[in-house]
Amino acid sequence: MKKFFVLSLLGLSSIANAAIQWDTQQGKLKLYGDVEFNTDAASSKQQLSSLKQTADKKNQPADKDRWDINGRILIGLDGYREINHSNYAGFTVQPLADLSGDMNLDDAAFYFGQKKEWNIKIGRYEAYDMFPLGQDTFIEYSGNTANDLYEDGFGYIYMMKEGRGRSKNGGSIQLNKPFLTNFNFELNGLINNGEKMFNKSTYHGYNIDKKKNVAYVRPVLSWKNDSVSTAIAAETNVVKNAYGYYDNDEKFRDQSKRTGYGATFSWNNEGDWNASNKGLKINTSFAYMNAKDEKDMTIATNLVWEQIGFGYIFANNDIKKFNLENRIKDGHINNKGKYKIHTVNASYLINNVLDMDNFNIYLGTYYSLLDRSKSHGDNTDDRYGARVRFKYFY
Q1: Residue 358 in contact with residue 18, Cβ under 8 Å?
Q2: Cα 386 vs. chain centroid, distance in angstroms?
Q3: Which CATH number covers residue 212?
Q4: pTM of the full predicted structure?
Q5: For 302-353, how does the pLDDT look when each residue is reduced to its tens digit (9 = 90+)?
């Protein structure tokens, strides 16, 4: 048994910068951990969008408490075996303990394949990130990727995550195939209860009824070299009439037709960031959702220069239909129309706290503005807040 600093296998546990490893007859076992606690302060009650701004998985945009201490401790265990420098198989499991006293789970996956040829993964995990947010501490989506993404009455910042995985209501299977030089094709399939994407099972003022599970297909084509990476992707539910609502004539209206498209580009000249904290990293992303009675578009760019991070996200929601008889009491969007959401954020990294290279503190802040169309009074609403994040890994 020995301690060493190592990046995780196949990106399944990228948070693990430090680990303890055992060699066994059946391969290698690796134990690691990640502590993340936050102290938050916000300008006023409630959020403007479904984008969660707290690490508390139970928090919803309608929650009124915006002053809190939250966080979690993750303990991960990975197993890996390789034969003849070619065939391999492994697993990862990452239980979480949060400050609410609940036990949750990040990843739980099994994978196998042949080096530089193909890889299959099955279980609970996140597929390719089509919307990286750089050094963000306050506006990242903190929760199950494929669950509770849409909170009715609040803006939807679409980020190509509906079919990405890590669902608490289903599982995923993925095929990875590298080809040519630096290219990779990823095909992810997610099967789960699609109704659970809508918190409280409401959408545009309608009560959602589930008929079948959804099956999302999410192909991603990516290219990467030492300093540049780029990818294009799509995600769509291929099951018709999976969920919907009944209109006044008791006719079922399918709401499960959802197809998204995205592209992302990253440039990174920072080298070994953990060692030097030098250089510049830039991410730019685009996502578009074509859904029943709604179109959503999101554009974002962010950069990290040495220990400072800046970002901007623009989201446009075009809602074609809304049930006025079932308005959301605490919502900011209660009618059809166009809504624009502007969010800027900044962060600063204080690394190597107490001369420990595995202990960092992040200072983060954000400002969000919801801009309504003229048909809704042409008024705005804003929110702002700050966070101190304590990050310790082992």
Answers
A1: yes
A2: 20
A3: 2.40.160.10
A4: 0.88
A5: 999 989 999 999 999 999 998 888 877 777 888 888 999 999 999 999 999 9
Cβ neighbours for 56, distance < 8 A, ≥ 6 positions apart: 68, 70, 98, 99, 100, 142
Cα within 13 Å of Cα(83), Cβ side: 9
Q: Can you tell me which residue has the tokens 């799509």?
A: 234
Judge contact between 158 and 260, C-beta under 8 A: yes
Amino acid at 192: N
Q: Please list, residue by residue across 312-341, b when 16 or more beta carbons sit within 10 angstroms of its beta carbon and e when fewer do.
A: ebebbbebeebbeeeebeebbbbebbebbb
The answer to whether 36 touches 55, Cβ cutoff 8 Å, is yes
Amino acid found at 280: L
User: Cβ distance 345 to 135 under 8 Å?
Assistant: no
User: What digits encode the pLDDT tens for the residues 131-182?
Assistant: 998 887 777 654 467 888 888 888 899 999 999 998 888 899 999 999 998 9
And the tokens for 324?
């006025």
CA 41 to chain centre: 22
Q: Report the domain count for the chain.
A: 1
Phi-psi sector, 164: left (phi>0), alpha (psi -120 to 50), beta: alpha
Range of the domain at 237: 2-393
Per-residue pLDDT of 233-245, as tens digits, reads 999 999 999 999 9
